[in-house]
Amino acid sequence: MEHRFYDLNVAFYNEHLLERAEYLGLSGICIVARSTDNIDEYLEKIKKIREGTKMDVVTGVLIEEKPNKILGLAKTLRRKVELILVSGGDYETNRMACSSDYVDILCHPEKGRKDPGVDHICCREAKEHNTIIELNFRELISAIGMERIRELNKMKEIVRLCNKTKAKFIVNSGAKNIFELRSGRELSSLSFCSGASMQDALIANSEIPEKLISINREKLKQPIKGVEYER
Amino acid sequence: MKDKIKTLPSSYREKKRYVVFEIISDQKIEFEELIKSVFNYTINLIGILGVAKTNFRFMSDLYNEKKQIFVLRCLPKDVELIRLSMALITEINEKNVCIRSLGVTGTIKSARRKYLDILKT
């Protein structure tokens, strides 16, 4: 079976991006906006981008705020965009993101830390609230020497905890330029080398994001939570 | 008497996999700088002992300079490791690059056949 790979954290946009993503074999990408950006302008831009391509372009907002502001922002943005991502690093932020129903992806929980940033409690909460924990490929590319060893070690620990608690994880490129984009198989190879099984590694970048996006799109169509129009 | 061992029977030989990679870059990458970077990045990720254990080899006769395609040989269980080490390459001789894998084959012949239109010089 052929997998449809997704990259749910691309932090830039230029005219060559979609062409390159298609060439790399990605079925869909999420061009992420910051929570401080103008969301209406961003949605307009994505609408225009979608017209000119067959690729699945997903809308998403990356929240980089203090833990006490995350929940409020996520609640308001939930009705506008398909994905809510939270920039992790701080334990309180990681815990908040894992235990929130409004957050879809917790990005780089290990950033700037000596430990993986998530513990068994966070992972259990993430499993319960369907939050996906992200491994960021860019964090690995940008690290050199001893830093890269530590980064790989933290990723290995996150995958081990996710396997143990059956929480979901995903590998995103976090690309800030066109050369940092990676194909689906390359992203999957990182989770495989961090200790996941081959099947889990492939599913993490194909079926899990696809399912998440389709559920969120259904939710966006609902006028009120849980209410659907009957045709 | 010739100083050469006899060829091992096929059942005694270790299984191999050939991973075909493509270099995506704005500038042309020379063979020497490519081979240097490939070995540097692989040793950097898995170490000298790791590289030795993977039966790693750069198939220089399958290198296509025009299409910027190269083939690496390794053990079947180490394919993903090699894929990851190639994915970590972002720069070769100060030129921005992105390396993607095209596929994995079991023999050189099938690598040539499957990617014939690509590998033909």
Description:
The complex is a heterodimer of chains A (231) and B (121). Chain A is built from 10 helices and 7 strands. Chain A has 231 residues and is α/β, with parallel strands linked by helices. Chain A has one domain: Metal-dependent hydrolases (TIM Barrel, Alpha-Beta Barrel), CATH 3.20.20. The termini of chain A are far apart. The mean pLDDT of chain A is 91. Chain B is an alpha+beta fold and 121 residues long. Chain B has a single domain, classed as Ribonuclease P, Pop5 subunit (Alpha-Beta Plaits). Helix content of chain B is 36%, strand content 25%. Chain B contains 4 helices and 5 strands. In chain B, strands 2-3-1-5-4 form a 5-stranded antiparallel beta sheet. In chain B, a hairpin with a 2-residue loop joins strand 4 and strand 5. In chain B, helix 1 packs antiparallel against helix 2. Chain B is globular, with a radius of gyration of 15 Å. Chains A and B meet through helix 6 and helix 8 of A and helix 2 and strand 5 of B.
